[in-house]
Design a protein that fits this description.
Layout (H helix, E strand, L loop, with lengths): L3 H26 L4 E3 L14 E2 L10 E4 L6 E3 L8 E4 L8 E3 L5
Parallel strand pairs: 1-3, 3-5, 4-6
Antiparallel strand pairs: 1-2
Length: 103
């Protein structure tokens, strides 16, 4: 027998499950987007500890953001693909991204 309280509980559960699925789907779209840290451990693009959150931007929908940082010479030790590179130069410093030579 469906009482109003039972129907309401089912509705709330359905709403929460649908909301959880939507949230997961949206956050997965930009899962690899990250910001270069102020004090990275190395200048290696492919080191997750150099990014916040701790993930390497490497996907067709990822965005890499650079702001103020004490390390502005960045090397790419393995292949990387991004959708956008955002540089917010706040201290009049240049950003240099080096890729390995492939023959």
């Amino acid at each position: 027998m469906n009482t109003p309280i039972k129907s309401f509980r089912i509705f709330v559960r359905t709403l929460l499950c649908g909301g959880s699925f939507l949230f997961t789907a949206l956050t997965t779209l930009h899962a690899g987007s990250a910001r270069w840290t102020v004090n990275p451990a190395t200048g290696d693009w492919n080191s997750a500890t150099n990014w916040t959150p701790s993930t390497v931007p490497n996907g067709p929908s990822d965005t890499a953001t650079f702001d103020s940082s004490n390390t502005v010479d960045v090397s790419v030790s393995a292949g990387a693909e991004i959708s956008a590179l955002i540089s917010m130069q706040t201290r009049a410093r240049s950003l240099l991204v080096l890729r390995p030579a492939f023959y």
